[in-house]
Amino acid sequence: MVSVMRGALMTSPLTKGLFSKAIVQSGGGRGNLMGERRLHEDLPNVPLSETLGVALAKKNGIEDTDATALAKLRDGRYRGIWATVLNVVIKSRRIVRHFALQKQFRPLTVAFTRYAGGSGIKHISGSIMRSTKFMTTGLYGLILSGCVAGAFPAMAQEAAPAAPPAQDATQNTAAKPDDTPTTTVTVEGKKAQNKIDRQVYDNTKDIDSQTGTAADALNKVPSVNVDPTGNVTLRGNSNVQVYVDGKPSVMMQGDNRAGALQSMSSGDIDSIEVMTNPGAAFSSEGSGGIINLVMRKNRKPGTSGAINANVGDGRYNASLNGARNTGKYTISGGLNVRHDERPSRGGSVMENLDTDGNTLFRTDQSGQSEGKNDSVSANAGLDYNLGEKDTIGTQIAWSRREMDNDSQDTYATYDGAGAFQRGYTRASHNTGPRDDFSFDLNWNHMGAQPGESLKTDLRFGRSTGNMTTDATNLNSDGTTDQDRRVTQSDFHNAVFSVDYVRPFGEAQMTTGIQINQDNNSFHNDATGNNAAFLRNDFAYEQLLSAAYITWQQPIGEKWTVQGGLRAEALKLDTENFGNPDITTDDTASHIDYTKVSPSAFATYALNDSTKLRFSYSHRLRRPQAQDLNPFRTYRDELNYSQGNPDLKPEETDSFEAGYEKSGKFNYQIRAYYRQTEHSITDYSTYLPVTDPNDTPVLLTTKRNFGGTKSGGLEANLDGKLTEKLSLRVNGNLAYTQFNGAVQTRDTEATTLSGRISFDYTATPKDRFQLSYFGRGKQLTGQGYTGPFGFGNFSYRHQATPKAALVVTVQDPFHTAKFTTVVDTDQIHSESSRSLQGTVLMVGLSYTLGGAGGSKDGENRWEGRRGPGGWGGPPGGGPM
Fold first, then answer.
1. β-pair partners for 317
2. Strand duo 289-295 + 240-244: pairing
3. Is 714 exposed, middle or buried (0-12, 13-18, 19+ CB in 10 A)?
């Protein structure tokens, strides 16, 4: 950001009159964007910003300062200027301006300086904070014209003068010692950190973002955790929806999500939006909230690209991305490859208990596994500006993931007295190729009124996979057994949505519809002991139709409120085809219901830097496809699974209140409470045996129980300890209580979790980051998970403006070990698993092309990116 020298023109709530109104209604002035100067202070020979704005209005025939006059100014001649200023060079009163015409961009701070010769004023600089939904207010035209063209007619003109002609800004003209000095615009992007219904976290700030996966990126977001198996939790709640660019994705559904997050490149993610209480514009699915991955998109003119390559202990990844933005159209594409090896060790002890709590038998297990995951993906996109108000875009993407895992486990079974009964060693080989394909088409229209927009989006996705497990058991008596399990799945998803935004004075209405259709099928086949009875085919077709409306309204100068209502109608048909080899009847079911989910938000500004935040939403958790499959599925000879077609959806009422303050240190404190009915949880029991010498089989299914009450206190802090050292801290103290017929003996618990990160800038070219995450005991429906911790260290050296070296050390303290305890009246088990340990990665990032020079350490690449369907239409969903 260009330093403010003498005289300042900045957006601030302190600005008065017409100029102030234009700024505030344009989304600027929401806080102290720059703290060096206040607008209401006089400087010699520098008029107040109010004077500049009124002068500009009068020059355009507007004498009043009321709302009507403001509307005239906003809808007037400057309405069409929505440019990001790249260079403003004023030499001898000659103005050369270069505008990057781009309508769709995220909040951006634009600083510009100008020289006014002979007036005693050396520099005037301004700062503008913009918001996408107020793109047509003409604030750029107001500020630029008021400062450079309209307010000082003796110093500047509305256009470059005819003589002498304006020179090309790129021309190399050396200035004489007495020449007028030249000033250059600095453009600096800034991600919004808060919106009324979500928190936004900038993924690009992490220096190892090009090295890791999406799971690694999520693990750096406050209160979000992704465990080593790919399961996502938000404040300890695993019922979380993961969106891509504001919409559901077939790659993020069910068991497919874990593999997708562990193969997606973190470098493809621009920011991560966390909605613990999503508004009505988003699906009510997910009692834990929604995590939205906003993918990188091209905003810069010209041709740009990037090459990234990383290699480490058993891992490597590489990507090539490029884009061409002419202003009229943007074409982009990318190719990504990734290889990960994840060895681990683990063990467990499981006891079957009688009604008095005595051990009937015990099974001990220990083993190790060597997992390999390979993925390759490609994507291409085209965005085209039909005119000043219309943009269309299309994207196509494909990815393939292959899992190859070898494991060897030793089992030993003992009776209640501890006498050995049976032992065997099980060697298994798992393979699981999966192909994902997606196609997106969107059209965005800017309406006649400032801030009015219509967005339509159509997405198709398909994901097919085949998971095969071949296992051989070497028994202690010298005999061998073999079994095979095959699960084939085919997911089809189509989403059509229309979102309309219209301002009404200071208020804003958002409304829309969304139609989501899923057509999924599963084929389960198994051979081995008793496996012939566990073959079936299951089909699942769901149509979810939704409509919503929200209204956002400022009340006075302090309050902003938003209310919303969403109605969702579900039609679900399932069909199960039993095993034709045995007398098993086919089954079918039909579910049809409508749910209405309200939401409410409010913020109260205590002052420019402090606010209170309140929110409420009603959330749902619908059973997944396999959760409804009534037939038993073979895992291995000691474990079966079975769905429950009678499952009801969970319903949650979620409340939050928070306090936020910005300044040298930014911090937020939030209290939250959730009450859930018809909670869905796992339920495990041993099947009866006919022969006392046989080992019982454990059957795991799903059940509804009474409900859950949970709450907690979350705190976030970030800021600079010194000029070179920054700190980010997150902590969450949560309480959970189960009510009703739950299996676990522990019905309530308190959990403390947190994350701390240090960022040290040793030199302008060298940065270090150290972070650590820790989580305490968390309840499940059958027991709890034990404490877990994980660390990460990164170093980045900017060798040249285009080339950077990144070194990452994952799990430097070797603490990535997690435990699970099942503790019910019938079962007590403890299992643990340790990961690979410390992993060293070394990477190189190189930027290609670009629309101009880069600052040292700045990556010019901003192209649309995302492997295999991660990329989507511009925007992060309904705003």
1. 310, 338
2. parallel
3. buried
Angle at 776 between CA 731 and CA 223, to 5 degrees: 35
Per DSSP, which regions of 721-787 are E strands? 725-739, 748-763, 766-775, 778-779, 783-785
Burial of 441 (0-12, 13-18, 19+ CB in 10 A): middle
Cβ(766)–Cβ(807) under 8 Å? no
Cβ within 8 Å of residue 119, ≥6 positions away: 45, 152, 154, 155
Share of the chain above pLDDT 70, in %: 71
Q: Which residue has the tokens 């035209």?
A: 141
DSSP H or E stretch at residue 117: none
Pairing of strands 124-129, 9-10: parallel
Query: Which residue type sits at 719?
Result: G
* Tokens describing residue 776: 């305490």
Q: How far apart are CA 138 and CA 70, in angstroms?
A: 11
∠ CA 434-435-438, nearest 5°, is: 140
Q: Which residues pair with 377 in a beta bridge?
A: 336, 399
Ramachandran area for residue 724 (φ above 0: left; ψ -120 to 50: alpha; else beta):
alpha
pLDDT value of residue 133: 30
CA separation, residue 375 to residues 266, 432, 443, 868 (Å): 14, 12, 31, 10
H-type helices in 39-85, by residue range? 49-59, 67-74
Residue entry with tokens 């018809």:
678
Q: Are 840 and 309 in contact (CB under 8 A)?
A: no
* String of DSSP letters for 590-610: EEEEEEEEEEEEEEEEEETTE
Q: Is the peptide bond before 248 cis (omega within 30 degrees of 0)?
A: no
Other residues' Cβ atoms within 10 Å of the Cβ of residue 301? 21
From the list 770, 748, 772, the residue with the least C-alpha distance to 759 is 770
Q: At 296, phi and psi to the nearest 5?
A: -65, 140
Cβ-defined contacts of 476-481 (< 8 Å, 24+) = 476/422, 476/423, 476/424, 481/424, 481/528, 481/529, 481/637
| pLDDT mean across residues, the chain | 75
Q: Give yes or no for residue 153 having a pLDDT over 60.
A: no
- Check whether 824 has a pLDDT greater than 70: yes
Classify residue 162 by burial, with Cβ atoms within 10 Å: 0-12, 13-18, 19+.
exposed
- Which tops the pLDDT comparison, 90 or 229? 229
Neighbours of 58 (CB within 10 A): 12
| Secondary structure, 3-state, 417-463 | CCCEEEEEEEEEEEECCEEEEEEEEEEEEECCCCCCEEEEEEEEEEE
DSSP string, 141-182: HHHHIIIIIIS-TTT--SS--SSSPPPPTT---PPPTTSPP-
> What are 253-289's pLDDT values in tens digits?
777 787 788 778 787 788 899 988 999 999 999 888 8
In the DSSP assignment, the letter for residue 285 is B
Two structure tokens written together for 134: 């107020």
698: Cα separation from own chain's centroid:
37
Q: What is the pLDDT of residues 506-544, one digit of tens each?
A: 999 999 999 999 999 989 888 876 665 677 888 989 999
Strands (E), 610-697: 610-621, 632-636, 639-642, 650-661, 665-686
Nearest to 11 by CA among 133, 142, 114, 169: 142
Give the count of alpha carbons within 13 A of 340, CB side only. 22
Give first-to-last CA distance, the chain, whole Å: 28
User: Given this model, what pLDDT does residue 55 score?
Assistant: 61
Read off the tokens for 401: 């993931």
Is this prediction's pTM over 0.90? no
pLDDT, tens digit, 9 for 90 and up, residues 80-127: 332 333 233 233 223 333 333 333 332 232 323 222 233 333 333 333
Size of the chain, expressed as the number of residues it contains: 879
Q: How far apart are CA 34 and CA 11, in angstroms?
A: 8
d(CA 671, CA 429) in angstroms, rounded, equals 47
